[in-house]
Design goal:
The chain contains 13 helices and ten strands. With 397 residues, the protein is of the alpha+beta class. A four-stranded mixed sheet has the order 1-4-5-8. The protein has a four-stranded antiparallel sheet with strand order 2-3-7-6, with no helix packed on it. Its cofactor is FAD.
Protein backbone atom coordinates (compact mmCIF):
# COMPACT_ATOMS: atom_id res chain seq x y z
CA UNK A 1 0.00 0.00 0.00
CA UNK A 2 1.54 3.30 -1.10
CA UNK A 3 1.08 6.72 0.44
CA UNK A 4 -1.53 7.45 -2.19
CA UNK A 5 -3.40 4.18 -1.76
CA UNK A 6 -5.04 4.11 1.65
CA UNK A 7 -8.81 3.67 2.19
CA UNK A 8 -9.15 7.35 3.11
CA UNK A 9 -7.19 8.54 0.09
CA UNK A 10 -9.11 6.25 -2.22
CA UNK A 11 -12.27 7.99 -1.00
CA UNK A 12 -10.56 11.34 -1.52
CA UNK A 13 -9.77 10.34 -5.10
CA UNK A 14 -13.38 9.36 -5.71
CA UNK A 15 -14.60 12.67 -4.28
CA UNK A 16 -12.15 14.62 -6.45
CA UNK A 17 -13.03 12.67 -9.57
CA UNK A 18 -16.75 13.25 -9.05
CA UNK A 19 -16.11 16.98 -8.52
CA UNK A 20 -14.11 17.27 -11.75
CA UNK A 21 -16.65 15.27 -13.75
CA UNK A 22 -19.61 17.25 -12.48
CA UNK A 23 -18.27 20.76 -11.92
CA UNK A 24 -15.23 21.15 -14.20
CA UNK A 25 -15.33 19.15 -17.42
CA UNK A 26 -18.53 20.69 -18.82
CA UNK A 27 -17.07 24.19 -18.42
CA UNK A 28 -13.26 24.00 -18.66
CA UNK A 29 -13.06 24.99 -22.33
CA UNK A 30 -15.17 28.08 -21.62
CA UNK A 31 -13.00 29.03 -18.64
CA UNK A 32 -9.91 28.67 -20.81
CA UNK A 33 -11.34 31.21 -23.23
CA UNK A 34 -12.59 33.48 -20.45
CA UNK A 35 -9.14 33.55 -18.85
CA UNK A 36 -10.32 32.62 -15.35
CA UNK A 37 -12.44 30.24 -13.31
CA UNK A 38 -15.61 31.56 -11.63
CA UNK A 39 -15.58 32.48 -7.96
CA UNK A 40 -18.47 30.08 -7.43
CA UNK A 41 -16.15 27.16 -8.12
CA UNK A 42 -14.21 27.99 -4.95
CA UNK A 43 -17.40 27.89 -2.88
CA UNK A 44 -18.45 24.59 -4.45
CA UNK A 45 -15.07 23.00 -3.77
CA UNK A 46 -15.16 24.30 -0.20
CA UNK A 47 -18.64 22.92 0.43
CA UNK A 48 -17.53 19.35 -0.24
CA UNK A 49 -14.27 19.77 1.68
CA UNK A 50 -11.80 19.82 -1.22
CA UNK A 51 -10.65 23.42 -0.86
CA UNK A 52 -9.46 22.88 2.72
CA UNK A 53 -7.49 19.67 2.17
CA UNK A 54 -4.04 19.95 3.74
CA UNK A 55 -5.07 22.69 6.19
CA UNK A 56 -5.89 21.86 9.84
CA UNK A 57 -9.48 21.93 11.00
CA UNK A 58 -8.44 24.42 13.69
CA UNK A 59 -8.11 27.13 10.99
CA UNK A 60 -11.14 26.12 8.97
CA UNK A 61 -9.52 23.45 6.82
CA UNK A 62 -10.52 19.85 6.12
CA UNK A 63 -7.47 18.26 7.72
CA UNK A 64 -4.90 16.04 6.07
CA UNK A 65 -1.38 16.92 5.05
CA UNK A 66 0.84 17.42 2.02
CA UNK A 67 0.23 13.86 0.86
CA UNK A 68 -3.53 14.39 0.77
CA UNK A 69 -3.04 17.61 -1.19
CA UNK A 70 -0.92 15.67 -3.68
CA UNK A 71 -3.71 13.12 -4.11
CA UNK A 72 -6.19 15.91 -4.94
CA UNK A 73 -3.84 17.58 -7.43
CA UNK A 74 -3.04 14.29 -9.12
CA UNK A 75 -6.66 13.22 -9.40
CA UNK A 76 -7.88 16.56 -10.76
CA UNK A 77 -5.49 16.21 -13.68
CA UNK A 78 -5.97 12.47 -14.14
CA UNK A 79 -9.75 13.07 -14.29
CA UNK A 80 -9.46 15.53 -17.17
CA UNK A 81 -8.71 18.80 -15.40
CA UNK A 82 -5.43 20.63 -15.86
CA UNK A 83 -2.48 22.09 -14.01
CA UNK A 84 -3.88 25.52 -14.89
CA UNK A 85 -7.10 24.66 -13.09
CA UNK A 86 -5.12 23.52 -10.05
CA UNK A 87 -3.22 26.82 -10.05
CA UNK A 88 -6.42 28.87 -10.27
CA UNK A 89 -8.51 26.97 -7.73
CA UNK A 90 -5.79 26.25 -5.16
CA UNK A 91 -3.78 29.48 -5.18
CA UNK A 92 -4.49 29.65 -1.46
CA UNK A 93 -2.04 26.75 -1.19
CA UNK A 94 0.73 29.36 -1.53
CA UNK A 95 -1.14 32.40 -0.14
CA UNK A 96 -2.17 31.00 3.26
CA UNK A 97 0.50 28.65 4.69
CA UNK A 98 2.68 31.50 6.02
CA UNK A 99 -0.26 32.78 8.10
CA UNK A 100 -1.09 29.31 9.41
CA UNK A 101 2.55 28.64 10.32
CA UNK A 102 2.94 32.00 12.09
CA UNK A 103 -0.20 31.47 14.15
CA UNK A 104 0.93 27.99 15.11
CA UNK A 105 4.34 29.28 16.25
CA UNK A 106 3.16 32.43 18.03
CA UNK A 107 3.80 31.01 21.49
CA UNK A 108 7.36 29.99 20.66
CA UNK A 109 10.17 32.34 21.72
CA UNK A 110 10.05 36.02 22.54
CA UNK A 111 7.42 38.39 21.23
CA UNK A 112 10.02 41.10 20.82
CA UNK A 113 10.26 42.78 17.47
CA UNK A 114 6.52 42.64 16.82
CA UNK A 115 6.37 46.45 16.65
CA UNK A 116 3.04 47.12 18.31
CA UNK A 117 1.30 43.88 17.41
CA UNK A 118 -0.41 41.84 20.09
CA UNK A 119 0.39 38.14 20.60
CA UNK A 120 -2.99 37.34 19.02
CA UNK A 121 -2.32 39.29 15.80
CA UNK A 122 -1.55 36.14 13.82
CA UNK A 123 -4.78 34.54 15.06
CA UNK A 124 -6.57 37.63 13.79
CA UNK A 125 -5.16 36.95 10.31
CA UNK A 126 -6.53 33.43 10.53
CA UNK A 127 -10.02 34.75 11.23
CA UNK A 128 -9.91 37.54 8.65
CA UNK A 129 -8.25 35.72 5.76
CA UNK A 130 -7.63 31.99 6.25
CA UNK A 131 -11.09 30.86 7.34
CA UNK A 132 -13.01 32.85 4.67
CA UNK A 133 -10.62 31.64 1.95
CA UNK A 134 -10.98 27.99 2.94
CA UNK A 135 -14.75 28.55 3.02
CA UNK A 136 -14.59 29.71 -0.59
CA UNK A 137 -15.76 33.27 0.07
CA UNK A 138 -12.37 34.96 -0.47
CA UNK A 139 -9.52 34.42 -2.92
CA UNK A 140 -5.90 35.00 -1.99
CA UNK A 141 -2.69 35.33 -3.98
CA UNK A 142 1.04 35.32 -3.20
CA UNK A 143 3.20 38.16 -4.55
CA UNK A 144 6.95 37.58 -4.50
CA UNK A 145 8.33 37.95 -8.04
CA UNK A 146 9.26 41.44 -9.26
CA UNK A 147 9.82 42.73 -12.80
CA UNK A 148 13.60 42.91 -12.40
CA UNK A 149 14.09 40.23 -9.75
CA UNK A 150 13.09 36.83 -11.12
CA UNK A 151 14.06 34.07 -8.71
CA UNK A 152 16.18 36.38 -6.55
CA UNK A 153 13.96 36.45 -3.47
CA UNK A 154 16.64 38.11 -1.35
CA UNK A 155 16.84 40.94 -3.90
CA UNK A 156 13.23 42.07 -3.48
CA UNK A 157 12.95 45.85 -3.76
CA UNK A 158 9.29 46.50 -2.94
CA UNK A 159 9.82 48.61 0.17
CA UNK A 160 7.66 48.91 3.27
CA UNK A 161 8.50 51.89 5.49
CA UNK A 162 7.13 51.88 9.03
CA UNK A 163 5.00 54.93 9.78
CA UNK A 164 3.33 54.69 13.18
CA UNK A 165 0.98 51.70 13.20
CA UNK A 166 1.14 51.33 9.40
CA UNK A 167 3.64 50.37 6.73
CA UNK A 168 3.84 52.51 3.60
CA UNK A 169 4.48 50.20 0.64
CA UNK A 170 5.96 51.15 -2.73
CA UNK A 171 6.96 48.79 -5.51
CA UNK A 172 5.61 46.32 -8.05
CA UNK A 173 5.10 42.60 -8.58
CA UNK A 174 4.59 40.50 -11.69
CA UNK A 175 3.48 37.01 -12.80
CA UNK A 176 1.08 36.88 -9.84
CA UNK A 177 -1.23 33.87 -10.09
CA UNK A 178 -4.87 34.81 -9.34
CA UNK A 179 -3.76 38.42 -9.01
CA UNK A 180 -6.76 39.67 -10.98
CA UNK A 181 -9.40 37.90 -8.88
CA UNK A 182 -7.66 37.96 -5.49
CA UNK A 183 -9.32 39.78 -2.59
CA UNK A 184 -5.98 39.97 -0.79
CA UNK A 185 -2.34 39.40 -1.62
CA UNK A 186 0.28 37.96 0.72
CA UNK A 187 3.11 40.25 -0.31
CA UNK A 188 6.86 39.97 0.23
CA UNK A 189 8.34 43.37 1.05
CA UNK A 190 11.72 44.67 2.13
CA UNK A 191 11.47 46.23 5.59
CA UNK A 192 15.00 47.63 5.67
CA UNK A 193 16.91 49.05 2.70
CA UNK A 194 15.54 47.84 -0.67
CA UNK A 195 17.46 44.78 -1.81
CA UNK A 196 18.94 44.16 1.66
CA UNK A 197 17.25 40.77 2.02
CA UNK A 198 15.47 41.83 5.24
CA UNK A 199 11.99 40.70 4.20
CA UNK A 200 8.58 40.70 5.81
CA UNK A 201 5.21 39.41 4.64
CA UNK A 202 2.23 41.77 4.58
CA UNK A 203 -1.37 40.92 3.73
CA UNK A 204 -2.62 43.71 1.46
CA UNK A 205 -6.32 44.03 0.68
CA UNK A 206 -7.54 44.74 -2.81
CA UNK A 207 -9.14 48.16 -2.83
CA UNK A 208 -6.53 49.68 -0.53
CA UNK A 209 -5.70 53.15 -1.93
CA UNK A 210 -2.57 53.01 -4.08
CA UNK A 211 -2.82 49.24 -4.73
CA UNK A 212 -3.74 48.52 -8.34
CA UNK A 213 -3.81 45.56 -10.67
CA UNK A 214 -1.72 46.89 -13.54
CA UNK A 215 -2.92 44.51 -16.22
CA UNK A 216 -3.99 40.95 -16.86
CA UNK A 217 -1.10 39.03 -18.45
CA UNK A 218 -1.77 36.79 -21.44
CA UNK A 219 0.18 33.54 -21.41
CA UNK A 220 1.20 30.55 -23.50
CA UNK A 221 -0.64 28.18 -21.17
CA UNK A 222 -2.63 28.06 -17.92
CA UNK A 223 -5.32 30.05 -19.75
CA UNK A 224 -7.97 29.48 -17.06
CA UNK A 225 -5.62 30.81 -14.38
CA UNK A 226 -5.57 34.61 -14.31
CA UNK A 227 -2.16 36.26 -13.91
CA UNK A 228 -1.46 39.91 -13.12
CA UNK A 229 1.00 42.71 -12.61
CA UNK A 230 0.54 44.55 -9.31
CA UNK A 231 1.55 48.09 -8.37
CA UNK A 232 1.91 49.67 -4.93
CA UNK A 233 2.16 53.46 -4.59
CA UNK A 234 2.20 54.76 -1.01
CA UNK A 235 -0.09 51.92 0.09
CA UNK A 236 -0.79 52.10 3.82
CA UNK A 237 -0.97 48.64 5.39
CA UNK A 238 -1.72 48.19 9.10
CA UNK A 239 1.03 46.60 11.18
CA UNK A 240 -1.55 44.02 12.27
CA UNK A 241 -1.50 42.74 8.66
CA UNK A 242 2.12 41.62 9.00
CA UNK A 243 2.62 37.86 9.16
CA UNK A 244 4.84 36.96 12.10
CA UNK A 245 7.68 39.11 13.33
CA UNK A 246 9.31 41.77 11.16
CA UNK A 247 12.27 40.70 9.00
CA UNK A 248 11.38 36.99 9.22
CA UNK A 249 9.77 36.83 5.78
CA UNK A 250 12.71 35.28 3.93
CA UNK A 251 12.77 32.23 6.19
CA UNK A 252 8.98 31.94 6.03
CA UNK A 253 9.10 31.95 2.22
CA UNK A 254 11.89 29.37 2.10
CA UNK A 255 10.03 27.05 4.48
CA UNK A 256 7.03 26.89 2.15
CA UNK A 257 8.95 26.27 -1.05
CA UNK A 258 9.07 22.49 -0.58
CA UNK A 259 5.28 22.13 -0.67
CA UNK A 260 4.96 24.46 -3.66
CA UNK A 261 7.65 22.64 -5.64
CA UNK A 262 6.20 19.23 -4.88
CA UNK A 263 2.77 20.44 -5.97
CA UNK A 264 4.26 21.53 -9.29
CA UNK A 265 6.09 18.21 -9.54
CA UNK A 266 2.77 16.45 -8.96
CA UNK A 267 1.15 18.52 -11.69
CA UNK A 268 4.00 17.49 -13.98
CA UNK A 269 3.88 13.72 -13.49
CA UNK A 270 0.05 13.71 -13.37
CA UNK A 271 -0.06 15.59 -16.67
CA UNK A 272 2.32 13.00 -18.10
CA UNK A 273 0.13 10.16 -16.82
CA UNK A 274 -2.99 11.74 -18.28
CA UNK A 275 -1.29 12.19 -21.64
CA UNK A 276 -0.24 8.54 -21.63
CA UNK A 277 -3.84 7.49 -21.01
CA UNK A 278 -5.18 9.77 -23.73
CA UNK A 279 -2.55 8.64 -26.23
CA UNK A 280 -2.99 4.92 -25.57
CA UNK A 281 -6.73 5.36 -26.18
CA UNK A 282 -6.06 7.36 -29.36
CA UNK A 283 -3.56 4.85 -30.73
CA UNK A 284 -5.96 1.96 -30.14
CA UNK A 285 -8.81 3.74 -31.92
CA UNK A 286 -6.93 5.57 -34.69
CA UNK A 287 -6.53 3.51 -37.87
CA UNK A 288 -3.98 4.29 -40.59
CA UNK A 289 -3.30 2.17 -43.66
CA UNK A 290 -5.86 -0.34 -42.47
CA UNK A 291 -4.36 -0.95 -39.03
CA UNK A 292 -4.60 0.66 -35.57
CA UNK A 293 -1.63 2.86 -34.68
CA UNK A 294 -1.05 0.70 -31.60
CA UNK A 295 -0.35 -2.32 -33.82
CA UNK A 296 2.94 -0.79 -34.90
CA UNK A 297 6.00 -1.61 -32.84
CA UNK A 298 7.48 1.87 -33.03
CA UNK A 299 4.27 3.30 -31.56
CA UNK A 300 4.01 0.64 -28.85
CA UNK A 301 7.59 1.27 -27.80
CA UNK A 302 7.02 5.02 -27.70
CA UNK A 303 3.99 4.48 -25.45
CA UNK A 304 6.00 2.16 -23.23
CA UNK A 305 8.71 4.79 -22.83
CA UNK A 306 6.13 7.48 -22.03
CA UNK A 307 4.49 5.28 -19.39
CA UNK A 308 7.83 4.39 -17.84
CA UNK A 309 8.87 8.03 -17.50
CA UNK A 310 5.55 9.08 -15.99
CA UNK A 311 5.38 6.25 -13.46
CA UNK A 312 9.03 6.63 -12.43
CA UNK A 313 8.54 10.33 -11.80
CA UNK A 314 5.41 9.64 -9.76
CA UNK A 315 7.21 7.11 -7.58
CA UNK A 316 10.10 9.46 -6.80
CA UNK A 317 7.87 12.46 -6.09
CA UNK A 318 5.80 10.34 -3.71
CA UNK A 319 8.92 9.14 -1.93
CA UNK A 320 10.23 12.68 -1.43
CA UNK A 321 6.80 13.99 -0.43
CA UNK A 322 6.53 11.35 2.27
CA UNK A 323 9.87 12.47 3.67
CA UNK A 324 8.80 16.12 3.64
CA UNK A 325 5.54 15.22 5.37
CA UNK A 326 7.59 13.39 8.01
CA UNK A 327 9.55 16.58 8.68
CA UNK A 328 12.83 15.65 7.01
CA UNK A 329 14.93 18.56 5.63
CA UNK A 330 15.25 17.30 2.05
CA UNK A 331 15.88 20.46 0.05
CA UNK A 332 18.09 18.71 -2.50
CA UNK A 333 15.67 15.84 -2.98
CA UNK A 334 12.74 18.22 -3.49
CA UNK A 335 14.71 20.00 -6.21
CA UNK A 336 15.52 16.67 -7.87
CA UNK A 337 11.89 15.54 -7.65
CA UNK A 338 10.70 18.69 -9.39
CA UNK A 339 13.28 18.40 -12.16
CA UNK A 340 12.66 14.68 -12.68
CA UNK A 341 8.90 15.19 -12.94
CA UNK A 342 9.19 18.23 -15.21
CA UNK A 343 11.60 16.43 -17.56
CA UNK A 344 9.27 13.42 -17.74
CA UNK A 345 6.32 15.68 -18.45
CA UNK A 346 8.13 17.61 -21.16
CA UNK A 347 9.07 14.41 -22.97
CA UNK A 348 5.66 12.78 -22.61
CA UNK A 349 3.50 15.73 -23.69
CA UNK A 350 5.66 16.22 -26.77
CA UNK A 351 5.37 12.55 -27.73
CA UNK A 352 1.63 12.57 -26.98
CA UNK A 353 0.97 15.48 -29.31
CA UNK A 354 3.14 13.91 -32.01
CA UNK A 355 1.23 10.63 -31.86
CA UNK A 356 -2.08 12.47 -32.02
CA UNK A 357 -0.93 13.98 -35.31
CA UNK A 358 -2.88 16.90 -36.75
CA UNK A 359 -5.70 16.47 -34.26
CA UNK A 360 -3.29 16.98 -31.38
CA UNK A 361 -2.52 20.47 -32.69
CA UNK A 362 -6.15 21.59 -32.43
CA UNK A 363 -7.61 23.48 -29.47
CA UNK A 364 -10.27 20.77 -29.23
CA UNK A 365 -7.64 18.20 -28.27
CA UNK A 366 -6.98 17.81 -24.56
CA UNK A 367 -3.32 16.98 -25.22
CA UNK A 368 -2.92 20.40 -26.86
CA UNK A 369 -3.86 22.09 -23.57
CA UNK A 370 -1.50 19.87 -21.59
CA UNK A 371 1.29 20.62 -24.07
CA UNK A 372 0.88 24.38 -23.47
CA UNK A 373 0.32 24.11 -19.74
CA UNK A 374 3.36 21.92 -19.18
CA UNK A 375 5.83 24.61 -20.23
CA UNK A 376 5.41 26.69 -17.06
CA UNK A 377 6.18 23.80 -14.71
CA UNK A 378 9.93 24.11 -15.22
CA UNK A 379 9.75 27.85 -14.52
CA UNK A 380 7.30 28.33 -11.64
CA UNK A 381 8.33 27.72 -8.04
CA UNK A 382 11.99 27.99 -8.99
CA UNK A 383 13.34 27.29 -12.46
CA UNK A 384 15.01 24.07 -13.52
CA UNK A 385 18.31 25.94 -13.40
CA UNK A 386 17.70 27.11 -9.83
CA UNK A 387 16.83 23.52 -8.88
CA UNK A 388 20.12 22.38 -10.40
CA UNK A 389 21.97 24.95 -8.29
CA UNK A 390 20.32 23.52 -5.16
CA UNK A 391 21.23 20.00 -6.24
CA UNK A 392 24.84 21.05 -6.85
CA UNK A 393 24.93 22.69 -3.42
CA UNK A 394 23.73 19.42 -1.94
CA UNK A 395 26.67 17.73 -3.64
CA UNK A 396 29.01 20.20 -1.98
CA UNK A 397 30.05 21.88 -5.23
Amino acid sequence: MTIADTPERRQLRELTRAFVTREVLPHLADWERAGEVPRELHATAAKIGLLGIGFPESVGGSGGNLLDSIVVTEEIIRSGGSSGLVAALFTHGIALPHMVAAAGARQVGSLGGRLGRTPDADDDLIDRYVRPTLAGTMIGALAITEPDGGSDVAGIRTFARLDGDHYVVNGSKTYITSGVRADFVTTAVCTMLPGSGALSLLVIDKGTPGFTVGRRLEKLGWHCSDTAELSFVDVRVPVRNRIGAQDTGFLAIMQQFAAERLTLATSAYATAQRCVELTVRWCRDRTTFGRPLASRQVVRHRLAEMHTRAESARAYVHEVAARVAAGEPVVTEVAMAKNVAVAACDQVVDAALQLHGGYGYLRDAEVERHYRDARILGIGGGTTEIMNELIAKGLGI
